[in-house]
Design brief:
Layout lengths: L4 H8 L5 E2 L5 H11 L3 E4 L8 E4 H11 L8 H4 L13 H11 L3 E6 L2 E7 H24 L3
Parallel strand pairs: 1-2
Antiparallel strand pairs: 2-3, 4-5
Helix pairs in contact: 5-6
This protein binds adenosine monophosphate.
Length: 146
């Protein structure tokens, strides 16, 4: 049975760390470090998805501009449009989006509002859980138990 994003959110929660577009890159770096995350959703109101900024964007900007890059606004380096998914999207579909887009974060949106975020770590964990369940079922089948 395919796993859905809703299952991932039920386990990890719906909290998403956001940053407003007018804030500075230095603040984004601070927020990523504080919350121990690799990406922030850019949102002016905490509900809408205006863009996304990840460690990679910061590294590229710093490589191009040096420390002056830290004084730029988040709006200058965020990526937009953002590829999003819903609670009903399957984990396999999210994996496909990440592979096709070469990114590791997919925000979850419902009725136009941000309700969570799925990272590549969440996807890997979910796939491992699924494989474990399948392996146990197979073992019970071949040993005649269960
Ligand atoms: P990541 O692998 O998530 O660190 O992101 C790699 C690049 O893709 C960065 O430029 C991000 O801003 C961008 N990015 C990350 N997630 C998304 C997304 N869901 N939609 C569009 N761009 C994204």
């Amino acid at each position: 049975m395919p796993q859905h994003v809703a299952v991932i959110l039920a386990r990890k929660g719906e909290q998403v760390h956001t940053i407003a577009p007018h804030q500075h890159v230095l603040e984004a770096v601070g927020a990523m470090a504080e919350h121990n995350v690799g990406a922030l959703v850019v949102s002016s109101d905490g509900r809408s998805v205006d863009g996304i900024v990840s460690e990679r964007d910061v590294v590229q900007r710093l490589a191009a501009l040096g420390h002056e890059g830290l004084d730029r606004r988040v709006a200058d380096l965020m990526q937009s449009p953002v590829v999003t998914c819903g609670r009903g999207t399957t984990v396999d579909e999210v994996m496909g989006l990440m592979t096709a887009g070469r990114f590791r974060h997919v925000p979850v949106v419902e009725d136009g509002a941000l309700v969570g975020i799925v990272s590549i770590g969440d996807v890997v964990r979910s796939r491992l859980d699924e494989l474990e369940v399948q392996a146990e079922a197979l073992e019970s089948y071949v040993t005649g138990r269960g």
